[in-house]
């Protein structure tokens, strides 16, 4: 171990996530795992993100570059396509300069772990003769779907109600990512997702934030086309991994978490009595949906801890917070992992973002699935039908989940038979996630192989 650490220290990875919370989180956690195995890591983010993040730990070195939008980040650009084009133009020059700066300072980089949302980072790695590593942040199931579309092997718009793709069970059109089942919606974001596969076959390694045993058939199929290795779940080690339980680095948060209020409130609640509610960092709910969710939470008559980002607060029903004080706490952001692992939490009403999904599976928290867009509908299908870790809240013809549906699903999980069944499965997934990261587990072995290869190439 000592010897490996010394050798590995010659390896220096630059880790370059797309600047959004759902991408920064898994790549920061992966960075921490690399560092634990002796690899030097520098995380790169944009000036804008850097100005706005809460650094809740400092175990990973941070460098910043300009994406050309230093004042507003992605929100300053007209759409994802404009943002990406500008980022590529400005950012690629800045990334090369950063590599040169690190080299001059005696810390040369020999590997770039890049987010395939920024495929040009691979070209920079190749041109600079560095190891190029793509890090996929979404499920492999979803990657298979995007891969087929990107290669023209899945014709759109869909003409059949059922979709048959290798590595996946038959799926209905409504289980496809939103860009497919709502054909024509967010074309710029869809292009960004498809762009992940534009040059990925040139990568030296493709790593994925998933657990092999969770998506076995999908990973096996995709690996025949693009050799890939699973390295997830990228959960902070203090929550899963005894080896690293003293690690107190919570990573980088774009939103300021209300840590003390959440913990104090949860500590006063009994085991399994609280519903935790969050739609992640990006989802924007319609006013009507927000209000139905609010009334549904109240109707369920359970305690709830609800994350409502500052930009969404005005959509809450008038006086809702004041009138629900006895039952609920509404905060603008929390440390989700602390909340999900708190024994008071018995259910998670979620938008089914991939990080939230993996986190809930890894901690065995039953879910009420309320997918909104992008990959969330596909994740929700797997949560409910294949992993059997939750119930999907029913949608009406307007695509809204009504209060009765919210309350019914919560009660079913908290008190009903479905809850009992899900709790049995929860144990299985929790064990599986932990074993994947334990020494000799599927993800740990893959990380070890990756590090050994890096060391061999950098010595
Ligand atoms: C986005 C997409 O929406 C999602 O579908 C895709 O899979 C990844 O990119 P986001 O919507 O933010 O991500 O959701 P999610 O993937 O769940 O990531 C949110 C992250 O923020 C999680 O790691 C979660 O733990 C964290 N979080 C969320 C907090 O720490 N505190 C909160 O209050 C809410």
UniProtKB/TrEMBL annotation:
EC number: 2.4.1.-
Family label: Belongs to the UDP-glycosyltransferase family.
Keywords: Glycosyltransferase, Transferase
Short name of any one Pfam family annotated for the protein: UDPGT
GO biological process, one term: monocarboxylic acid metabolic process
InterPro entries: UDP_glucos_trans, UDP_glycos_trans_CS
Primary enzyme class: transferase
Protein name per UniProt: Glycosyltransferase
Organism in which the protein naturally occurs: Carya illinoinensis (Pecan)
Gene Ontology molecular function: quercetin 3-O-glucosyltransferase activity; quercetin 7-O-glucosyltransferase activity
PROSITE patterns the record matches: UDPGT (PS00375)
Superkingdom to which the source organism belongs: Eukaryota
């Amino acid at each position: 171990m000592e010897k490996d650490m010394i050798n590995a220290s010659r390896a220096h990875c630059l880790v370059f996530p797309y600047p959004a919370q759902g991408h920064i989180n898994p790549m920061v956690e992966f960075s921490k795992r690399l560092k634990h195995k002796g690899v030097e890591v520098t995380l790169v983010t944009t000036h804008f993100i850097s100005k706005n993040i809460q650094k809740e730990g400092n175990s990973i070195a941070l460098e910043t570059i300009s994406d050309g939008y230093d004042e507003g980040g992605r929100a300053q650009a007209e759409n994802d396509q404009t943002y990406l084009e500008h980022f590529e133009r400005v950012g690629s020059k800045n990334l090369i300069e950063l590599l040169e700066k690190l080299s001059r300072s005696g810390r040369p980089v020999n590997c770039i772990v890049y987010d395939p949302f920024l495929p040009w980072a691979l070209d920079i790695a190749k041109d600079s003769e560095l190891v190029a590593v793509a890090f996929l942040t979404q499920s492999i199931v979803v990657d298979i779907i995007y891969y087929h579309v990107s290669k023209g092997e899945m014709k759109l718009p869909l003409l059949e109600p059922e979709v048959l793709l290798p590595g996946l069970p038959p799926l209905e059109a409504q289980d496809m990512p939103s860009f497919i089942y709502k054909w024509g919606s967010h074309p710029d974001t869809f292009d960004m997702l498809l762009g992940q596969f534009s040059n990925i076959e040139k990568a030296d390694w493709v790593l994925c934030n998933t657990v092999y045993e969770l998506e076995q058939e999908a990973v096996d199929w995709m690996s025949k086309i693009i050799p890939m290795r699973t390295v997830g779940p990228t959960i902070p080690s203090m929550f899963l991994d005894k080896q690293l339980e003293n690690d107190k680095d919570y990573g980088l948060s774009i939103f300021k978490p209300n840590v003390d209020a959440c913990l104090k409130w949860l500590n006063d609640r009994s085991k399994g009595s609280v519903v935790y509610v969050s739609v992640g960092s990006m989802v924007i709910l319609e006013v009507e949906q927000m209000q139905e969710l609010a009334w549904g939470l109240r109707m369920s008559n359970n305690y709830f801890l609800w994350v409502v980002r500052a930009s969404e607060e005005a959509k809450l029903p008038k006086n809702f917070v004041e009138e629900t004080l006895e039952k609920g706490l509404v905060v603008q952001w929390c440390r989700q992992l602390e909340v999900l692992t708190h024994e008071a939490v018995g259910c998670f009403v979620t938008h089914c973002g991939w990080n939230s999904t993996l986190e809930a599976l890894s901690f065995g928290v039953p879910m009420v699935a309320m997918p909104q867009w992008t990959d969330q509908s596909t994740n929700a299908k797997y949560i409910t039908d294949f992993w059997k870790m939750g119930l999907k809240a029913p949608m009406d013809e307007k695509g809204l989940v009504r209060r009765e549906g919210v309350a019914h699903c919560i009660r079913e999980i908290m008190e009903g038979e479905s809850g009992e069944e899900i709790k049995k499965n929860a144990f299985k997934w929790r064990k599986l996630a932990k074993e994947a990261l334990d020494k000799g587990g599927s993800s740990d072995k893959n990380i070890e192989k990756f590090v050994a290869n890096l060391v061999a190439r950098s010595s």
